[in-house]
Design brief:
- The structure holds 2 protein chains of 2 kinds.
- Chain A is an alpha/beta fold.
- Chain A has 2 domains: about 10-260, 3-Layer(aba) Sandwich (Rossmann fold), CATH 3.40.50; about 305-485, Pyruvate-ferredoxin oxidoreductase, PFOR, domain III (Pyruvate-ferredoxin Oxidoreductase, domain 3, 3-Layer(aba) Sandwich).
- Chain A is built from 16 helices and 13 strands.
- In chain A, the strands form 2 sheets. In chain A, strands 2-1-3-4-6-5-7 form a 7-stranded mixed sheet, with helices on both faces. Chain A has a 6-stranded mixed sheet with strand order 9-10-8-11-12-13, sandwiched between helices.
- In chain A, helix 1 (about 40-55) packs across helix 7, helix 11 (about 315-330) packs across helix 15 and helix 14 crosses helix 16 (about 460-485).
- Mean pLDDT of chain A is about 95; it is low at about 1-10.
- Chain B folds into 2 domains: about 5-235, Thiamin diphosphate (ThDP)-binding fold, Pyr/PP domains (Rossmann fold, 3-Layer(aba) Sandwich); about 235-350, Rossmann fold.
- In chain B, the strands form 3 sheets. A 7-stranded mixed sheet of chain B has the order 3-2-4-5-7-6-13, sandwiched between helices.
- Chain B is globular and about 70 Å long.
- Chain B starts with a strand and ends in a 16-residue tail after the last helix.
- The model of chain B has no long low-confidence stretch (mean pLDDT about 95).
- Classes of the chains: A alpha/beta, B alpha/beta.
- Chains A and B meet through strand 1, strand 2, helix 2, helix 4 and helix 10 of A and helix 1, helix 3, helix 4, helix 7 and strand 8 of B.
- Strand 2 of chain A pairs parallel with strand 9 (about 205) of chain B, so a sheet runs across the interface.
- Bound molecules: thiamine diphosphate, iron/sulfur cluster (SF4) and magnesium ion.
- Magnesium ion binds next to helix 3 of chain A.
Chain lengths: ~500, ~375
């Protein structure tokens, strides 16, 4: 379809069923293809159409056409048609086939399309063993765009972008895609054929048919590479071009069956049908059935509790916040839980923002917490100044460093992890702190906390441990208040 | 109805499946990977397709294939991945294929970082691929909206036969809030135009090619007509306590949440401040801006980008009110304190009586 030859067309004779009788989608000359005389695409089209006829699959066939001279394959094929982006036909075909496993999907591609820009898509479709058929028309050149080099261009071959001939030192070597793909485990059938003479053409016809039939039988990925003349860009007569395929191209790209596992593989099982529509909310876990019993234990009065929890990863920072949020939700409050997010995530530290409120929560970010839980010293340093006057700091340590002392907030500093250790596992330190926090803030009913724990902690051993840790935390707080009273 | 505590990224997938989505093709990228992972978990369970593609380029072309086949399909990605998808998005808009793309934005340009930023605005809202097209863009600011706007996205994608992007930041994706879902799932249906490998659909063609200049022009005019209808019908914004507002704070996503907190505090101080939150970024809710401009004295755009939505706000106001701008990016979030300071400063300034005037932009 290159510029110089637009007036010359080949007429197709003996129309297969799978071709339209009249090429309505084409503008003018609706009885001729847009391919030049002697073009391999016209011949391969006919082979594919015949295979579709013979296999009786016209209604099931979906042709994915590429970008290249065969971009308009949908002018001719009376099948379902999808025209894809340059090189991406195997990705498009993958999804078409997976959407309708009963359909027969053919990815039809040129050598630039398949071996250059689309090299990743063909490799991975082949490697996944997609049950599709790929027809790979290799004419060793970018024809549609006027004759630039392709990865398949022969050494020494002149193109508009290798004016002195392809030079391995600069452009590398002709890419043997079929051989490459044949190293993969998944493909069932890969053959390279040619259109160099009548014998080759007959073999090509058989290969195209097999590649389609394999899919009909559900065997898996099949690809036929067709060495194909482009008289126009090669600047040869149709006859010379055909001979060039046989006498020159074939030397670089030997004709061969590179992979045939069709006898060894079992047809792919049809994918299981999905569940009934009514089942889906349950599968997603969004039905009311999993709902905790609505509790009488509702939080009372106007609530607006803003909490910041910070520490090392592994100290249970996020879970502490989650139990708090979940308990708040259970108690009929609005809640939000926001994990620290961004660069901090990777540095081994962890923190989260939790809000519990009667009214809808405006910002889930807590800049000035009522309660700070600092599981380590860096966290205390970072956030101690942000706590609102009258608020609380729970610090996992013996004493609060001088710089962090504040007269206007309540501080409870204890080695919470050690306390938990005495209960059986230091990792329950987060729940000891949560117990103290709940006791101090007196916002949430115990029933809500129990419900939240039950939902988030699945192991019975941990559940018991966490419950004891919570109780111990409440105790610690009460003890500390008594101390304050005594001191006072 | 049951309210569940859930992350935004998970809510998207559950809502998508309830909306009839039966295919997900994606490539991992922080902070969108959780969506891909949730899709991997749930889609096979509902008889759908999940496939991790070899790249975002492949993923978007798989969306092209699945949409051509008439399946409700989605993907999720972020900055660099969305950049790679642009050619495919353009093809889908050109071929009039519906799909939903979740963009959980991160910092750029280049590899930037994985923290939340709003700098994908231009590439998503302005149609970052080639050609005359738009994607419709929805901007959730809560977990509930992650669910609701995903459902809306599938509806709009089908109604307009066009890609729809749900654009959220990492905060909205990561945070947990109560969310409720419809208790019934939408039945997937096969559109008439789909290429399904059946006798009835044999004559169908999906293509974005219009060789004749007149035909391509007519095609694009028809796309334009669609976008015009969308502008009339689908533009949405939330006005939050804007009655009597003289200062209107403008932001979307997590920023809007901060702005609401700021406005609440400023109002408590007696300042006349409200929040206008675009929910659709394309079509942009320009009318709401014009309406509020009748009373308001100044608009303050707060963005986690260098001023990408700012351009649309200026266009919508067309110079009738000054537009102030506060921006943080790189993973930094505009703080409650700095926004409040700006509001107080603007309130202190003797503001001119409402009348058309030149805008001014303060880079804070
Ligand atoms: C993304 C993109 N890059 C480049 C092009 C231009 N282009 C169209 S066809 C083509 C080469 C096609 O060559 P091949 O696949 O060998 O097909 P042939 O025409 O030889 O059959 C190129 C580079 C395009 N359409 N899209
Ligand atoms: S591949 Fe070559 S011969 Fe065939 S249509 Fe294109 S330019 Fe003409
Ligand atoms: Mg070629």
């Amino acid at each position: 379809m290159s510029n110089g030859t637009e007036a010359e067309y080949e007429v197709t004779h003996g129309r297969p069923q799978a071709f339209y009788e009249n090429f309505d989608r084409k503008g003018e000359l609706q009885h001729q293809t847009h391919y030049c005389p002697g073009c391999g695409h016209g011949i391969v089209h006919k082979m594919l159409a015949q295979a579709i006829d013979e296999l009786g699959i016209q209604n099931r066939t979906i042709l994915v056409s590429p970008v290249g001279c065969s971009v308009f394959a949908y002018y001719y094929f009376d099948v379902g048609n999808v025209q894809g982006a340059h090189g991406r036909a195997p990705a498009v075909a993958t999804a078409v086939k997976r959407s309708h496993p009963q359909s027969i999907v053919v990815s039809y591609q040129g050598d630039g399309d398949l071996s250059a820009i689309g090299s990743a898509e063909i490799l991975h479709a082949a490697n996944r063993g997609e049950n599709i058929t790929v027809i790979f028309v290799n004419n060793a050149i970018y024809s549609m765009t006027g004759g630039q080099a392709a990865p398949t261009t022969l050494l020494g071959q002149v193109s508009t972008t290798t004016p002195a001939g392809r030079n391995a030192a600069n452009e590398g070597y002709p890419l043997h895609v079929s051989e490459l793909l044949a190293t993969l485990e998944a493909p069932v059938y890969i053959e390279r054929v040619g259109l160099g003479d009548n014998r080759q053409v007959a073999q090509a016809q058989r290969a195209v048919r097999r590649a389609v039939e394999n899919q009909v039988r559900g065997l898996g990925f099949s690809l036929v590479e067709v060495l194909s003349p482009c008289p126009t860009i090669w600047k040869m007569s149709p006859v010379d071009a055909q001979h060039w395929v046989r006498d020159v191209m074939e030397k670089t790209f030997p004709l061969a069956v590179l992979r045939d596992r069709t006898k060894d593989v079992q047809p792919k099982a049809a994918p299981a049908t999905g569940p009934a529509l009514e089942e889906i909310p349950r599968i997603l876990g969004v039905t009311d059935e999993g709902e905790a019993e609505p509790s009488d234990a509702q939080a009372k009065g106007g609530v607006d509790l803003q909490v910041r929890v910070a520490g090392f990863g592994g100290q249970g920072v996020l879970l502490l916040g989650e139990v708090l949020a979940e308990a708040g939700l259970h108690a009929g409050l609005e809640v939000s839980w926001l994990p620290s997010y961004g660069p901090e995530m990777r540095s081994g530290t962890s923190n989260c923002h939790v809000r519990l409120a009667r009214e809808p929560i405006d910002s889930p970010l807590v800049a000035h917490p009522d309660v700070l839980v600092a599981m380590n010293e860096p966290s205390l340093h970072k956030f101690c100044a942000s706590v609102r006057p009258g608020g609380w700091i729970f610090y996992n340590g013996e004493t609060v460093p001088e710089e962090c002392e504040r007269k206007d907030v309540h501080i409870l500093a204890r080695p919470f992890m050690h306390v938990a250790d005495e209960l059986g596992d230091g990792r329950a330190g987060n729940m000891v702190i949560l117990g103290a926090l709940l006791e101090a803030t007196a916002t949430l009913p115990q029933a809500s906390v129990d419900a939240a724990l039950g939902q988030l902690v699945k192991s019975p051993r941990w559940l018991t441990l966490d419950e004891r840790a919570l109780a111990r935390g409440r105790e610690l707080l009460r003890e500390s208040l008594q101390e304050v009273c005594h001191e006072g | 109805m049951r309210r569940q505590l859930m992350k935004g990224n998970e809510a998207i997938v559950k809502s998508a499946i309830l909306s009839g989505c039966r295919a997900f093709y994606g490539y991992p990228i922080t902070p969108a990977s959780e969506i891909t992972e949730a899709a991997a978990q749930y889609l096979p369970q509902v008889g759908g397709v999940f496939l991790q593609a070899e790249s975002e380029v492949a993923a978007i072309n798989m969306l092209y294939g699945a949409a051509s086949a008439g399946v409700r399909v989605m993907t999720a990605s972020s900055g660099p991945g969305i950049s790679l998808m642009q050619e495919g998005i353009s093809y889908m808009a050109g071929a009039e294929l519906p799909c939903v793309i979740a963009d959980i934005t991160r910092g750029g340009p280049g590899l930037g970082n994985i923290a939340a930023e709003q700098s994908d605005y231009h590439q998503v809202v302005k149609g970052g691929g080639h050609g005359n097209y738009h994607t419709l863009v929805l901007a959730p600011h809560s977990v509930q909206e992650m669910a609701d706007l995903t459902a809306l996205a599938f509806e709009l994608a089908d109604r307009y036969r066009n890609p729809v992007v749900v654009m959220a930041d990492g905060f909205i994706g990561q945070m947990m809030e109560p969310v409720e879902f419809p208790q019934t799932a939408t039945e997937p249906h096969l559109p008439k135009w789909a290429v399904a490998g059946t006798e009835e659909s044999r004559g169908n063609l999906i293509s974005s090619i219009y060789l004749e200049p007149d035909k391509l022009e007519a095609h694009v005019r028809q796309l334009e007509a669609k976008y015009y209808v969308a502008q009339q019908r689908e533009a949405r914004a939330e006005e939050w306590r804007t009655e009597g507002a003289e200062i209107v704070l403008v932001g979307y996503g997590i920023v809007a949440r901060i702005l609401k907190a700021v406005a609440a505090e400023a109002q408590a101080e007696g300042l006349k401040v409200g929040v206008l939150r675009p929910i659709t970024l394309y079509p942009f809710p320009g009318l709401q801006f014009q309406k509020l401009a009748e009373r308001a004295r100044v608009f303050v755009v707060v963005e986690m980008s260098n001023g990408q939505m700012l351009e649309d706000v200026r266009l919508a106001l067309n110079g009738v009110r000054p537009v102030e701008f506060l921006s943080r990016f790189g993973g930094n979030v505009p703080s409650h304190g700095e926004v409040l300071e700006l509001v107080r400063k603007l309130a202190r300034q003797t503001l001119p009586a409402p009348q058309p005037e030149r805008e001014s932009v303060a880079h804070v």
